[in-house]
Amino acid sequence: MNVERFGDISKITLPTTFSVGDVNVYVVKGDRLTLVDAGVKTKASWEALVYGLSQLGYAPKDLEQVVLTHHHPDHVGLLDFLPDGIDVIGHKYCANWLSRDESYLKEYVEFLRALYLQFGLKEVEFPLSQIGATLKVSCEQSKLTQVMQEGERLFGMDEWTVYETLGHAQSHLVFFREKDGSLLAGDHVLATISSNPILEPPLIKNAARPKPLVQYNHSLKKMLELPIHIAYTGHGTEVKDTHELVNRRLARQHERAMSVYEMLKEKPMTAFQVCQQLFPAVYQKEIALTLSQSVGQLDYLQEIGHIEAQMNDEGVLYFVPL
Ligand SMILES: [Zn+2]
Q1: Terminus of the chain with fewer CB atoms < 10 Å: N or C?
Q2: CA 141 to centroid of ligand 1, rounded, Å
Q3: Has residue 88 been placed in a domain?
Q4: How many domains does the chain have?
Q5: What pLDDT does residue 285 have?
Q6: Is 145 helix (H, G, I), strand (E, B) or coil?
Q7: pLDDT tens readout for residues 67-83
Q8: DSSP 3-state of 200
């Protein structure tokens, strides 16, 4: 049994190939039968979805639309296996990822390559190959059919309001239902782990690089303004004390950044050096994630005016306390 029911919201838990473990998708019966998110594109995940739907009396062909919280592989992969013609709704940033637009992906790799060099990484091919591996379980022939943005009523689920919550992903949206304080939170709020602010290219080509942790903090604070009763999350259990959790996460992140600040007071460092020091045991295995996390702390410290970035002759950035 991989299904839990919460009134008109049903949670189906699906296996993934990632260290985060299972992913949660939700079936919501609004004006249209909606699936919120779709797990990784593997046989095991598909079978778990079909089984979960059957527990609810549905088959995949009964689904009328999929609403996406964001474009990461563990939330979109199974779109490729769903019946043709199903509506797919999400942030416009998802579009290039769902169809796996080749020229876009090339730009993405170039974007990361340039950043990694600036951050002091010498062997940039290795982390780039890790990204290729995660895309294997994403979708590649799907299409975003409807774009949603902040403040709109969610298509086919008109009790729900859309909030843009960039940070974990440049496409992240959450959906809030005022009448009972339900939040479909995706990976914006997770019960036991803090959500990773992942480095991704800007929505608008050649715009400044997004600072995902700074965005994430801003998006977390947005949640404090909503009377959230329960948050249905992308991984793990529901969150019943969202405001408390948000405040805890913000405080913890500030502490983490301040410990990076202390490290930089000893000597200026590159982002990669910070990463090695913060994550000595895992940085090689999870370089993209740990580097994103480290850059996040550095972006935050810059934002609050504690450090600045200085570029050396080789184009590498050193972070210096002020
Ligand atoms: Zn996820």
Answers
A1: N
A2: 20
A3: yes
A4: 1
A5: 85
A6: coil
A7: 999 999 999 999 999 99
A8: coil
